[in-house]
Structures are given as structure tokens and as C-alpha cells.
């Protein structure tokens, strides 16, 4: 993947969101299965940050493989402290 292509894609998405087309652009670009996978990933991050259930319980609750939960956990470990604080503020306080 070219970095320039990724940046152009991110810029396109940002413009769509800025113009209040977030729902439309995501529906255009993602299949129903991909949208469901994205929803599941957000649920994984939420549950990991919330800490109210362990990873095995989360796997069972969402009906996914433990590897999917582990990937979410590993990805969360790689984010910067500032971004993690932003995620916590915007995800945990949102619900």
C-alpha cells in the first residue's frame, strides 16, 4: 500500500465526514459484512477499555474467535497515550 494512496483515502473520508456524508461514504465503500466487522471491532475496543468482562467472555458474547479479540487487544496496546485518552473519552463516555 502506497502511503500517498492511504493519505488520499484518509483525506477523502475526512472530507466526506466534514460534509456530513459519513453514513453515505461508509455505506458506499463497505459491504454489509465489512460494516458488521467494523461494528464488532468497535465493540471489542469498548469492552477491552471498559474492563467489565475478560477476553474469553467477550469472545463468547460476540460470537467471534479469540484471535480476533487478541488482535484488538494488541492494536490497542500500540496506540499513543493521547489517542487512547481520546478513544476512552469518545467511546466510553458516549455509551
Structure report:
It is found in: Cytoplasm. Residues 55-78 bind DNA. This protein is an aporepressor. When complexed with L-tryptophan it binds the operator region of the trp operon and prevents the initiation of transcription. It comes from Frischella japonica. The model has no long low-confidence stretch (mean pLDDT 95). The protein has helices at residues 3-18, 22-29, 32-50, 55-62, 66-77, 81-92. α1 packs across α2, α3 (32-50) packs across α5 (66-77) and α4 packs across α5. With 95 residues, it is mainly alpha-helical. The chain is 79% helix and 0% strand.
Tag the structure with descriptive keywords.
single chain; 95 residues; mainly alpha; 6 helices; 79% helix; globular
What is the fold's blueprint, element by element?
Blueprint: H1 3-18, H2 22-29, H3 32-50, H4 55-62, H5 66-77, H6 81-92
Question: Could you provide a short overview of the structure?
Answer:
The chain has 95 residues and is an all-alpha fold. It has 6 helices and no strands.
Mean pLDDT, all residues: 95
Main β-sheet description: none
Helix content: over 70%
User: What is the molecular shape?
Assistant: globular
Low-confidence stretches: none
Q: Note the run of SSEs as H and E.
A: HHHHHH
Intertermini distance = 35 Å
Instruction: Return Rg in Å.
Output: 15 Å
Give the DSSP E fraction (strand runs of 2 or more residues): under 5%
Helix/strand class: mainly alpha
Q: Enumerate how many helices there are, as a single number.
A: 6
Multimerization status: single chain
Number of strands: 0
Subcellular location: Cytoplasm
Protein name: Trp operon repressor homolog
Subunit structure: Homodimer.
Pfam families: Trp_repressor
Amino acid at each position: 500500500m502506497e502511503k500517498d494512496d492511504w493519505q488520499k483515502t484518509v483525506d477523502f473520508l475526512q472530507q466526506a465526514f466534514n460534509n456530513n456524508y459519513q453514513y453515505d461514504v461508509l455505506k458506499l465503500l463497505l459491504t454489509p459484512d465489512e460494516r458488521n466487522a467494523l461494528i464488532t471491532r468497535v465493540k471489542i475496543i469498548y469492552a477491552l477499555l471498559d474492563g467489565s468482562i475478560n477476553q474469553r467472555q467477550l469472545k463468547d458474547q460476540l460470537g467471534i474467535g479469540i484471535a480476533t479479540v487478541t488482535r484488538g487487544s494488541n492494536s490497542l496496546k500500540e496506540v499513543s497515550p493521547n489517542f487512547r485518552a481520546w478513544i476512552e473519552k469518545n467511546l466510553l463516555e458516549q455509551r
